[in-house]
Amino acid sequence: MKRKIGLFMLCGIALLGVCGCSNNNNDNIKKFTAVDKSIFPFDTIDTEQQFFDVLNENNNIVLAVKDTCEYSKKFSPIVKEVADTYNLKVYTLNVDSLDNWTLNNKKSEEVITIEATPTLFIKNKNIEKIEGFYEKQELINILQTKNIIEDKRTSKEKIVEYLEKNKSAICDDTKCTYSFTTPGYFSDTTYYTLDFVNKKFYDKSYNYGSTYIEYNYGNNTGYAKLVNTVGWTTTTEVWLTYNDANNTYNWTCNSDLNGYCEATGNSIAEMTDRKRTELYDICNELGIKANEI
After folding, report:
1. How far apart (Å, rounded) are the C-alpha atoms in residues 129 and 229?
2. What confidence tens digit (pLDDT) does each residue in 227-272 have?
3. Widest Cα–Cα separation across the chain
4. pLDDT tens digit string along 200-218?
5. Is-contact 172 185, C-beta < 8 A?
6. pTM above the 0.85 mark?
7. Do residue 93 and residue 137 come from a single domain?
8. 104, 126, 145 - which closes a domain
9. Are residues 95 and 114 in contact, defined by beta-carbon separation less than 8 angstroms?
10. C-alpha angle 249/154/200, rounded to 5°?
11. Chain centroid to CA 208: how far?
């Protein structure tokens, strides 16, 4: 949830960090007056019972708002955009129409209390609150987690969004690229690429020569090439093939330095296998498969 510091004094439930407008009006106000339709372009809840009945129907959500609440006004177009995209029906509830911001279900004696606006109401088995202001993607993620909407993003779109957010990657339709620099006096920068066209995830670094490590998720193979330029130039290459049935791999090595494959081939293979693990860990977190991106 994003806290709007400049409007902190407008936040309800401040101890919980929920951004919204608090209930500071205990007067009995005439119930169910309409909100400004130019700001909240949704059907209006007219009665207490309608609130509960609406939420019993599929794809319905209720947005509790206050005309004078800036968070409510900012949240309204975000809710509308998400609702239009995912075919949700939105109703608005004017909290100033309620006694003490409370709703009573006469059919079940259920009581709902609203502490802040905006509050979005959804229903799975029970009525749930989503309190405060959220940006569009934050709201989508919450609604997906609560199984209110289906995630329509492709596997590629999911991993692009993940890399842009978590790795500061630069992405286009063909690839995502990002880098990581090891801190310290002998710092080294590794450059990563997720190549959607050739279905490869690889990195390059240039410390004392060059290192290239690749996992080809299209044909499920690994490859590494190490060029050492200290003293004299030597080149070592390692190839990996995977057996998914027992989650093992075989490796072969070639080097122009005698005995180098025997001494370091296995460690290079393990380093190459970690590139596959790195990609699979991201995919597992996103609930996708590597061969789908």
Report:
1. 61
2. 998 888 999 999 999 998 888 999 999 999 999 999 999 999 999 9
3. 90
4. 999 999 988 999 999 999 9
5. no
6. no
7. yes
8. 145
9. yes
10. 35
11. 38
